[in-house]
Amino acid sequence: MSLDHRPDVPGADHRGGRSGPATGVLDPVPAPAGPAEPFPGGAGATLAAAVAAGGLDLPLPGSGATATRWARLARIARRDLPVARLAEGHADAVAILADHHRSPAPGAGYGVWASRSGGGARLDGGHDELRLSGTVRFCSGTHLLDRALVVAGAGDGTRLVDLDLRAPQVERVTAWRAAGMAASDTHDVVLHDVPVPAEAVVGGPEAYTARPGFAHGGAGVAAVWLGAAAAIVDHVAEPLRTTEPDPHRLAALGTVHAAVAAADALLAVTAARIDADPATAHHDAVATVRAAVERACRSVLDTAPEIAGVAVLAGSPLLTARLADLQIYLRQHHGGRDLAALGRALVTPAT
Prior knowledge:
By secondary structure, the chain is α+β, with helices and mostly antiparallel strands. The chain is about 45% helix and about 15% strand. It has helices spanning about 45-55, 65-80, 80-100, 210-235, 245-275, 285-315, 315-330, 335-345, and strands spanning about 110-115, 120-125, 130-140, 145-155, 155-165, 170-175, 185-195, 200. Strand 4 and strand 5 form a beta hairpin. The radius of gyration is 20 Å and the shape is globular.
């Protein structure tokens, strides 16, 4: 199954498999053909079909085609952000396993469950009797995935566990009440002393965050944000092609287009930097592009309703759903806290 944004060119990529600063990550914004419809099946069925068909066999970060990887994730988000949330988590899990010279279980849909909010997971016991316990919040794909890489506290830091979600000690607890991103099946998971085979522990202490790929993956999430923002621009631009819009709406469309295009260009530059030096985390570059994309998305969220007007907003449940989805998913960026960390890095002498 193809998850490409353009149904007429399944699985194609306009960069020919190369990443670089000369091209962006996104296809043209706004889309000449108008907004794409969401995938016809549910998010879980769509993800499972894509995994089975190899539709999420993406280039790894730093492999020389990072922009291609991000472009494919952005296209999925431009069509269906909840599906993209699951696809990005699966692709991130595959990249994490590859960083540790591991392969995913054949045909399994993966997530990465790393939240430490409310305590998170805990790995205790000796080598032959490891147990995973605790509550992990904000687990996307709670009922839809086969496996998850779970970040757990341990005596020597945090550890990463490749967890089979069929274990009877894994309890799902409904916790998501918002309409936005509801289709991503994000809830809490309670781990009741789950037995963990030694081979299910991936890497050593801090295996999740210590690798350069942790930062690289953060920029990939920003590509998903921007794809979702592009979908909203596609929606609000379409009516302007068949009416006589006032200049203020046209100016607002120009504003959001410019913001998205600038963030897109910076994503391409960042992808090229990662590919040129994949052993480096590029923390400052990643923090910068995440901030730039977040600002572009904020501009879209603030301005798109003004461009659309009440008639379009009232008549398009898909547009209002996409606004709600992005509003919530964008909070993976922590606003002022992340910007303060970036500012601190910029004025701290390199060691």
